[in-house]
Design brief:
Blueprint (H helix, E strand, L loop, with lengths): L1 E7 L2 E4 L15 E4 L2 E5 L1 H6 L14 H22 L6 E8 L4 H12 L3 E8 L5 E8 L1 E8 H11 L8 E6 L3 E8 L2 E2 L5 E4 L2 H12 L9 H10 L1 E4 L2 E4 L1 H23 L2 H6 L2 E5 L6 H11 L4 E4 L6 H12 L5 E2 L2 E2 L7 E8 L3 E7 L6 E2 L1
Parallel strand pairs: 1-21, 5-8, 5-19, 9-15, 15-16
Antiparallel strand pairs: 1-20, 2-4, 3-4, 3-6, 6-7, 9-10, 10-11, 10-12, 13-14, 17-18, 19-20
Helix pairs in contact: 4-10, 5-6, 5-7
């Protein structure tokens, strides 16, 4: 029912032509914005010198605008393929921010997304010729919600919904957030926001740099090294699994565990039988093991399916469930005769995901 595409949240301005290759996910070689050209995603990581993105940028920052427009191009290309020669429907879009910055950025994000726009980019063909192309994006309605609400929507309204009370922990690159989730929603008293997995990446960088020259790599390039756990030095593979394990252990013991202890009380644990982990950090087995060691005796620790895409899927579901005030068979839907498509956009600090509620009933993952 939901198609989800993900790409690295990095970009870099460039003056070069890349006529021989397109980004394998975004399917363009460069994005044009305000008269300048930018490499984005895997293309930036593979071809760029200093691919980067500011942590938790505001909608007024160029980082947010370039990454979000790249995601909108990706979604529109998918819709063009799905709709063939038909008119591309307008989009109902939901995006979000960490709880700590949600209110600060909400109005700016709505103003940014609600404008119809024409996005320009360059695409390389099989003959090595680069063409300038444009895509028109029309947003019918915009919802901006806290990221944790999007994750909660995905867990409670997704394919394998959980109806009981649970503790929700979202471990992203920039922030780690959590709260007790009930059928009435997230408990405001238990909501917290703290440092994300970047805390562990910084510790990892310091340890690796003691014995290995990192060649002026950016924080996002180090994050990919952190994910792989190895790199090639002088044409030899060098593993850094122990350094990663130690960094994750310090992160958990210094940040995550004390924060949970502060906000989640004994009475909250009485109400919950499960702890659900989402976000890219939930992909690290070392981190999941630490959760299980601390909470496994009285809670079932669950890692959500494709946890790194949980927020964007929840946003897309939120778009569909909250499009209008009319109710049909328990699902909110539009009375408007104009066709719409439901999108969820999660502009993460490490990766960006865009989810599309499919109309053909098939589930696809990318």
């Amino acid at each position: 029912m939901i198609k989800t595409y993900s790409f690295p949240s990095v970009y870099e301005a460039t003056l070069q032509d890349f006529a021989l290759s397109n980004d394998p996910i975004l399917n363009f070689s460069k994005l044009k914005y305000n008269g300048s050209n930018y490499l984005v995603g895997l293309q930036a990581l593979n071809e760029g010198v200093s691919p980067h993105k500011f942590i938790n940028p505001s909608p007024e920052d160029i980082d947010y605008k370039i990454i979000s427009q790249s995601a909108l191009v990706l979604a529109t290309q998918s819709l063009q393929s799905e709709n063939k020669n038909q008119k591309i429907p307008k989009a109902v879009l939901t995006a979000g921010f960490p709880y700590a910055t949600y209110l600060l950025n909400k109005d700016h994000a709505i103003d940014f997304f609600k404008e119809d726009r024409v996005i320009s980019y360059f695409k390389a063909d099989d003959d090595g010729i680069q063409h300038a192309e444009q895509i028109s994006v029309s947003i019918k309605d915009v919802n901006i919600i806290p990221e944790l609400v999007g994750c909660d929507t995905s867990i409670r309204k997704g394919e394998n919904p959980i109806d009981s009370n649970f503790i929700l922990i979202s471990i992203g690159y920039g922030t780690c957030e959590g709260a007790v989730s009930t059928s009435e929603g997230l408990s405001a008293r238990t909501l917290f926001s703290s440092h994300g997995i970047s805390y562990a990446v910084n510790i990892f960088t310091q340890e690796v740099a003691k014995n290995t020259y990192l060649n002026m790599r950016t924080e996002h390039q180090i994050d990919h090294l952190f994910t792989k756990g190895y790199m090639f030095v002088n044409r030899k593979r060098k593993d850094f699994i122990n350094e990663r394990k130690n960094a994750i252990s310090l992160y958990y013991n210094n940040v995550i565990s004390p924060t949970i202890r502060r906000y989640i009380t004994d009475s909250d644990f009485e109400l919950c039988q499960k702890m659900v982990l989402v976000g890219g950090g939930a992909l690290y087995k070392e981190l999941v093991t630490l959760f299980q060691e601390e909470f496994g005796e009285f809670l079932t620790v669950i890692v959500a399916d494709t946890p790194e895409k949980c927020a964007s899927k929840g946003y897309a579901l939120y778009s569909k469930l909250n499009h209008s005030n009319s109710n049909k068979d328990g699902i909110y839907s539009s009375d408007d005769s104009e066709r719409v498509v439901y999108l969820g956009l999660d502009i993460g600090n490490a990766n960006t995901s865009v989810s599309i509620v499919s109309t053909n009933g098939k589930k696809e993952e990318f």
